[in-house]
Amino acid sequence: MTTKLQVRHLTKIFGRRIPRAEELLKAGKSKAEILKSAGATVGVNDANFEVNNGEIFVIMGLSGSGKSTMIRMINRLIEPTSGEILIDGENLTSLNKKQLLDVRRNKMSMVFQNFALFPNRTIIENTAYGLEVKGVDKDERLKKSHEALELVGLHGYDDQYPTQLSGGMQQRVGLARALANNSEILLMDEAFSALDPLNRKDMQDELLDLQENLKKTIVFISHDLNEALRIGDRIMIMKDGEIVQTGTPEEILTQPADEYVEKFIEDVDRTKVLTASNVMIRPTFINIDKDGPRIAMRRMVENEISSVYVVNNKREFVGVVDASHVMGLIKKKERKLDSVIQTNVPTASPDTPITDIMEKISSTPIPFAVVDDKNHLLGIIIRGAVLGAISGNEVVEND
Amino acid sequence: MTNIPQLPISSWIDKLVDWLASFEGFFNGVTNFIGGIINGFQWIFDLLPIWLFMLLVVGGTYWLTRKTKHWTLIIFEIVGLLYIWNQGFWRDMTQTLTLVLTSSLIALVVGVPLGIWMGKSKVFETINKPILDFMQTMPAFVYLIPAVAFFGIGMVPGVIASVIFAMPPTIRMTNLGIRQVPADLIEAADSYGSTSWQKLFKVQLPLAKSTLMAGVNQSMMLSLSMVVIASMIGAMGLGNKVYFAVGRNDAGGGFAAGLAIVILAIILDRITQAINRNKIPKS
Ligand SMILES: Nc1ncnc2c1ncn2[C@@H]1O[C@H](COP(=O)(O)OP(=O)(O)OP(=O)(O)O)[C@@H](O)[C@H]1O
Ligand SMILES: [Mg+2]
Is the overall model pTM greater than 0.90, yes or no? Predict the structure, then answer.
């Protein structure tokens, strides 16, 4: 995994008394204090992060937290006050005008919240805009634009004007305009926020589908956590111009860095992102190849449980035995457990989403066994732990 | 009050005018240039038979309003032009038209770039706004004096005075049109690597077009309102007829010529508006 985009100590201050504001910022004053005493607004403060080749990197945060400022510094629609932006190791902040045009034409394309289609241009002309300013000749332009429109599932609208299309279709054109340019980086500022929920979901699916083949590096701004969790490979959360946390969706959900992030994830439907491995607990088990009924009984008594999981010498999952059957064996002085092992135990793999097994978890009395692809027993899922994780109170540690 | 000396504004302006008059070569050049445009227009209008002129106007209107079929306008044009011809004002009308078209053309060619500049530069906009207010509120008569001083009498100083008086709306509306282009469209143009010129010609001007044309329309109407005033310094045309009627206390003649000006004004107004009609369908 190589780094495509690197942001180092990137800062943007809006307003007049920038040197003064910078001093205050260095002295650790807050955004509000700086606005009060210097009259300058801190848009982004000392941001550091990297975006990997081919990943969807989602930036989240409340309104005014600096998301748009950040993404606009990446293509220098907003000039950074200080700091560096590196693309493939090339520093964008030191480029001259002509070089900057080149980068904008060839390296990155932007998709906007309100589509930003040119109302005086037809759909095909809109799609071809980037190629047109680059000076690509007309046949080539049309060919590439058609391909891009095809990719987003729009045909037959070439000669219509943007106002004749629905919002969802307009944003498809916005996406096609970016794709036609064939740049490796896509910058998407709340690209799906203006769409209604169903359209938004369609577009998310479509983006994920496209991404499978295209493998673009995508910086995607969202204020919708469900969207971020759905499409993001990694998520960065911003507050008052600062980065609070960067991590995979799971890390954000399971280890929120502070209260701000916790607040953010509070209302997420956790079942959508939690997997079996997030909620499983350490199982109590015995080894069928060496342990007999007495050991099994002892384990159950020690742990105050009524059944115990059974594995073999290779730690492969075999089944489960329960207390009453084991008691019977002990009375009959049996040495072997084999006769009472129940093998019809429901199993799940560690990445199974909880939503998929939720219903079964609540309807079967025996906890799920979580096994890996070699059938090794990794853990078990008990109902209580699932509910705890979903409500966000208690996520059981596992190693 | 009496202690405060009167500021010598009038003598300063006189001096400035004298000084400017020393650039005789320059003013001659301008006179010749504008005279050329005027002669060109007039030559065409003199060449056109009346029936062909009417056919062009009506046909043009028909084509411009082909979607809405503006029949009342077409009938008005036919009746109006026949009236002008019937009153023996045809050549006066074409002279007035020449004056108006020449001033509008110059207002367009000079005003649009100034408006674009204002649209792109906050500083230039701040400097220019009061100047434009000044140009428009100064009584139009005042422009006649320097116009005569530099360009003598006749059509050319008439055009110059009209241009000064009529240009501000074109500048203003161009500026407004450029500034009204939504910020995200500018961002989109920039983010795809447009140069300033590409942005101007592919995005800003096309989107400013209808506002800009409304300014041109206003300029045209203002320059038409100058024709009577311009006739005082020897500009020919319908204005001249009105001016002489006033001198001779000839109410009937003045009204007849004045009506011809109104007819011309309405035709010009409606045609420029029709040109301006957006061809982009509204949602
Ligand atoms: N051109 C500007 N001039 C002055 N301040 C600005 C400017 N643009 C943004 N800001 C300020 O910078 C801060 C960050 O704004 P930004 O637009 O990046 O936030 P955001 O996270 O994108 O918010 P939203 O979710 O509302 O889009 C805000 O306090 C905003 O007021
Ligand atoms: Mg924003």
Answer: no
